[in-house]
Design brief:
The structure is a homodimer of 416-residue chains. Chain A is of the alpha/beta class. Chain A has two domains: 191 residues, NAD(P)-binding Rossmann-like Domain (Rossmann fold), CATH 3.40.50; 202 residues, Dihydrodipicolinate Reductase, domain 2. Helix content of chain A is 36%, strand content 25%. Chain A contains 14 helices and 19 strands. Chain A is globular.
Chain lengths: 416, 416
């Protein structure tokens, strides 16, 4: 059954979401895009039309919206007959948008954990601070809310669940590795909103180890991974959304997240952090102006969406899952490799936006089909992974498996 | 003859100037300190009184003043009977303060070249852009204006002149070297106003070589100098005020300035510059706030005056002067070594502020005595160097000489 979609946000990820919704508008129906700056929505629509991405004739409209204003979002949802909201705006909006869904009954999908502008690295598990407090209300009202349905969190949660379903019993370790082996040609740039990017790494690095939360500093614990396609890559233990739900839902005593960083990133990050320029707390200039340093850093850095045309190379993101199977130690690496240039050619965005923007569209298609329309709040690992990965196989993010039986595409020919 | 002094500015250098004026108030008379923030002047006065620095009973008063407002400065000069203004406020004030001196007849002394907030690295020679345009008016009105009377520019200009007078004929090379081998114990800090500090290095590095201006980038040309006390030190060719007057006044085909930098400084500077965070041009944040990045960097860095209590180690600043003497190649290094801790113990400031703040007081004493009261505008190398260096020998900045005859104190016992 076709269901109309509202995309909130108009950055690089929203552009991918719009293209993929358009390519699948036989399933998803009308497409609406809303952001604080309508011109950015217009530009996305222009890009969709230019690529002739609409699978069939249909509605594709831009709206100005301050999504912090719940009443405005409610009004837009009602006026346009929206049944699924894909929220890929800033993470500061999440709870406001979810409230609008609770009020209207529209399904809610996001790709990142909620954040409050003035707080960094709250107590784990982070989902318990905002999202899960609203779980009972979602169930009462029968509102589907799929949390963290990007790549990481999102697809990597489905990989963990797939590993548990088919490859490893008694899981002891889930190590999620995110490597961007691409090159944007700039001195320095972040691949998505610098404000959100830096905030991920300025606080304590929480990991779930031996069934408890451990705390480290960023870049304190590094490890070299030998990965398909991108080869040997140095990654660092980082705090990340999915650790917080997987620690609760997977029964694994160890859940860690590893992010790859080049020396340039680490150096720039270290300088900015040590100087206090990544602070979200305002400072006062000699002239008496109150300024949040992080917002100034964001203002001087390249717009992440500007990187796409010259981005080359590949990403590799996946889960190492260890445990026992049939009484023997078992390990599997479930992963995807994406190419920046191919992503740009298809949807006008770089690979990081592509990997983040395709999965919520797959999630929306599953809500539309009913397979994921669970009428409550769920993290991705609580939902059946195979329909999700099956769609992703067909819309640009194929899954591969590497274990003792070799390195191969995930085969859906037998069971989906 | 005693002459009343007005100190403009209330930073680390102003603190040194106030202490040294107080220690010599038998020559200088009343002491007034004025700044935009009167509380900072009050704190300096408190420090002077605490150290019992006043040589004899006398006036020591604080004033609130916006020195960009010429009429206000004129009024303060008239009201307090000021005959000498020592301007150690921000370099943006210089021409406004000089205009107030031209209007009142008070002598003017500064320590740095005038700057306009929105311009960096104007065409050389820099003094011709603002200061020297007012030279004729100084002469007409009989107003003494001593430009650049800190250490560098200032004492190093007197060293160049001393070299020419006594040590080297037919000068071919003047290489000024400024090494701070001190340690403030912070991750990163500038030793004086970060805004002025960074502006020195963000533009083109102008040097005077083979009788013409050459252009390089910062940190492009480095050289290791083997110096007294501080040993081997890496320094980089930098643009600096004194090159601009010495190139005109000394007849040397080569005038270069070399500043010592540690790896940490270079890395932080490089990161900030490449990101655009040292820009004096405003950027607009996503929220629509207009901000000058450099002012935000200044706001997050340690206040230079806060470094003093824990500063250890020494500075070495001097001139390598090469040429011929009596038909043979000759070379001399004229220099001073200062100690951060000793400076702090005496005047409550670190060594960089000390070396910058003591010389303008010596200049003021020479204006008061008449020896430098030249009734026109002059750069330091145009004035007799020996009385200046003689006073400095007695008030904290002794001069030393190193040449083929060894390393020794400058001896004034024969001729001053």
């Amino acid at each position: 059954m076709k269901k109309n979609v509202l995309i909130i946000g108009a950055g690089g990820v929203a552009q991918v979401v719009a293209h993929k919704c358009a390519q699948n508008n036989d399933v998803l129906g009308d497409i609406h895009i809303a952001s604080r700056t309508k011109a950015k929505c217009d530009a996305i629509i222009e890009s969709v039309l230019e690529k002739k991405a609409m699978k069939q004739d249909g509605v594709l409209l831009a709206h100005q919206l301050d999504a912090l204003d719940i009443a405005s979002t409610v009004a837009l949802i009602k006026q346009t007959g929206i049944e699924i909201v894909i929220n890929v705006g800033t993470a500061f909006l999440n709870m406001s948008v979810l409230e609008a869904c609770l009020e209207t009954g529209a399904a809610y999908i996001d790709t990142a954990i909620h954040e409050e502008p003035d707080k960094i690295c709250e107590t784990p598990p982070w989902y318990a601070n905002y999202e899960w407090k609203r779980k009972d209300r979602c169930a009462e009202k029968g509102v589907t809310a799929v949390l963290g349905a990007g790549f990481d969190p999102g697809v990597v949660n489905a990989y963990a669940r797939l590993a548990k379903d088919d490859y490893v019993d008694d899981i002891t370790d889930i190590d999620i590795v995110d490597i961007n082996a691409g090159n944007h040609g700039k001195y320095f740039a972040t691949n998505f909103d610098p404000e959100i990017n830096f905030r991920e790494f300025t606080g304590t690095v929480y990991a779930w180890q031996n069934n408890e939360w451990t705390e480290n500093k960023m870049f304190e614990i590094g490890h070299e991974f030998d990965l398909p396609v991108v080869g040997k890559q140095q990654a660092y233990m980082s705090g990340h959304d999915e650790i917080h739900s997987l620690s609760k839902n997977m029964g694994s005593p160890n859940v860690r997240f590893w992010m790859g960083f080049g020396e340039r990133y680490i150096n720039v990050f270290t300088v900015l952090k040590n100087l206090g320029l990544l602070s979200e707390q305002p400072v006062t200039t000699a002239e008496g102006q109150e300024v949040v340093p992080l917002k100034v850093v964001k203002a001087v850095l390249p717009d992440p969406s500007s990187l796409a045309p010259n981005y080359t190379g590949k990403t590799c993101i996946g889960d190492f899952v260890k445990g026992m199977k049939d009484g023997k130690p078992a390990e599997v690496f479930i992963y995807n490799v994406s190419d920046h240039k191919e992503a740009y050619n298809e949807v006008g965005s770089q690979g990081i936006s592509f990997t983040a923007g395709v999965p919520p569209v797959a999630a929306a298609m599953l809500v539309a089909s009913g397979e994921w329309d669970v009428k409550t709040m769920a993290n991705v690992e609580e939902l059946p992974p195979k329909p999700f990965l099956h769609i992703l196989n067909h819309i640009g993010l194929p899954t591969r498996i590497r274990d003792e039986n070799g390195d191969r595409a995930l085969d859906f020919s037998k069971s989906v």
